[in-house]
Every structure is written in C-alpha cells, then in structure tokens.
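Reopening: structure tokens for the pyridoxal-5'-phosphate complex, inputs below.
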Amino acid sequence: MSRVFNFSAGPSILPEVVLRQAADEMLDYKGSGMSVMEMSHRSKVYDNIIKEAEKDLRDLMKIPDNYKVLFLQGGASQQFSAIPMNLMINGVADYIITGQWAKKAYEEAQKYGKANAVASSADKTFSYIPDCSDLPISPDADYVYICHNNTIYGTTFKELPNTKGKILVADMSSDILSQPVNVSDYGLIYFGVQKNVGPAGVVIVIIREDLIRDDVMPLTPTMLKYKTQADNDSLYNTPPCYGIYICGLVFKWVKEMGGLSAMKTHNEKKAAILYDFLDSSDMFKGTVVKKDRSLMNVPFVTGNEELDAKFVKEATAAGFVNLKGHRSVGGMRASIYNAMPIEGVEKLVDFMKDFEAKNK
Ligand SMILES: *Cc1c(COP(=O)(O)O)cnc(C)c1O
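Re-run output (same inputs, fresh job):
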C-alpha cells in the first residue's frame, strides 16, 4: 500500500487512523455482526452512533443548547435553496459575494425572494474579502449570508461582517473544525462534510432554535423544512448513515488532537510553511491579498501556464496529487485541511524549491 500526499480541494484527505478504524469495523461493528452500512437507522446501535457524533460535534464547537444540529443530505448546494425557503420571512436577504459558492447561493436565493448583493470581490477575481464594516444592509433583511472560507479562491473572513443586527448565515464547508468558532455569532452555520470532516453525502446544519419555523414558504419540500428534520432528530427518513458514522470518527480524532484551538495551531503552522515559501520564491506566487489568506486552501501560480502544467505533472509523479488549480483561477491550489500532516506541506515545499532551482 502506498498513500500519496493528497491536496484535493474536495472530497479530500481524511485522517489515516480514521480510515483504518473504519476498515477494522467494516465487517463487524462492535460485535453487532454487521457493517454500519447494513444496520437499521432505527436500531439502538445506530442511535448511539448518531447521538455520539452530535455530542462530540457539540463539545468541539461548544454549540449552545439553543441550537439544533441536523445531519442532512443533498450537499452544501441543497442548502442554497433550503436557507431562503426556511428563513426568508420578509422575502429579503443580503448576500456578500466572495466567490463562486456565495454567488451560486445568491443566484438560487433570487428564486425565492429579493436577494441583494451588498458586497462583492468579483472585480479582482475574488482575491480579497471586501470591507464589510458598513454595508448597505436592507432594513428588512431576514439574514446576511457569507461563505466563510472560499475554497476556490483561497480567501477567508478573518473578521465577521457588521450585519447591523441581522442574522448571520455562513457556509463553512471548507473550514469547519479548522479553528474555534463562536457559534452564537451566527443564526445558521452549515457545511458539506467532504472537505474537512467526512465522505460526501452529508451536510450538517447548526441552527438557532428560534429560526426553525412552521410557517416557511408554502412550497418548501417536507425534506427541506428544518422543522421536519429537527422534530425527527435527523431521522425523518433514512439519513446518510455510513457517512455520519465516519464524521463521528473524525470528530473523535479532532478531540484527540486537542480540539479546535490545537487544530488552529496545527493549521497555522502548516499554512505558514507554505505562505512563507511563496513570499520568498522568485517563481511561485500566492494569488490572494495577504490579510485575507485562507488556512485551508492555498492557490498559487508561476505566471507561466506551461510551467504550471509542468509543475503539476512532475508533482503528481512525485506523489503530491490534486494540485491543479480550479479552472477559474488557473495555476495550482494546495488544500491543506485538518488531516494533512505538517510533513506533507514540508515535503511539498522541498519539492517546490527543487523545481524552482531546476527550472530557473
Ligand atoms: C464544496 C463546496 C460547496 C459545494 O458542496 P456540495 O456538497 O458539492 O454541494 C459549497 N460551498 C463551499 C464553500 C464548498 O467548498
């Protein structure tokens, strides 16, 4: 067996110990005589799995008691419609457009009400986070929406927008559990788990209880109504059982690593190794304004497309895979999620130095 250093933006690297444990428990989960994939979601064994996953996530993020945690399907993108359907009571919401995911959410919301783009960084290929200290927030906005970490462009909110008292909704798909979060700052946090937590097929919604209502938009599908899911503890229908089980194992792993503060230190260390090199290199350059740099996704370019392609090819051959940048930015992108060891980033930088020396 040989494992590569996997810099994929998503689905992405998972902790090796978690994969090993899942392999060990594949045929016989804790004496049940069956795989987690084969058991009823109404069984006692499975009930323990989902309850423990929720408890561990609550512990890690210090989620207050007046928030519900929902384990859902449909990916992060399904929430682009669920959020306006459930939260647009006045029919108005303000969106901050910092990349493609925020833009998609904004475009989807327009189907359900008046969605306003109150800020955008589209003018410079989303390479920065706009100043959000004094935005033209709509007086009747039901919420203000952000994408907290922009997976494609490699920017992140270091300071939350001033929502002028409105509820903040955040997509944290690509930086959840990478650092501590003050959940009370948000009305709703959601994340597709396949970046930093688990296998694709699970999306987790953390929502303040008073935002879970019965009088949502009349055409809201039963499955997309948060109240349905909250009233049924995410077991209205069959949940993505196996995916939730893996998320639970990852939550335990993050706890063992020391929790979110330790995770932040670990991630800052990794990011610094890569950014320090990019700042000192004559060949490789980061594409993002320094103060807005993400800890998770690091896009960079050489400025020469042929050289970029050569780098990606040689890196792949050397075991550093999935480094090709998103088509809208070009160049390269290294996603260095929680499960990426420091060694992976150190070795990547060594490889980059070597490549630079050989291709001067
Ligand atoms: C990957 C990603 C999405 C889309 O997730 P799906 O589960 O594929 O719908 C949305 N937002 C962010 C920030 C992402 O990184």
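The chain has a mean pLDDT of 97. The first strand starts at residue 5 and ends at 6. Marking as resolved unless the reporter disagrees.
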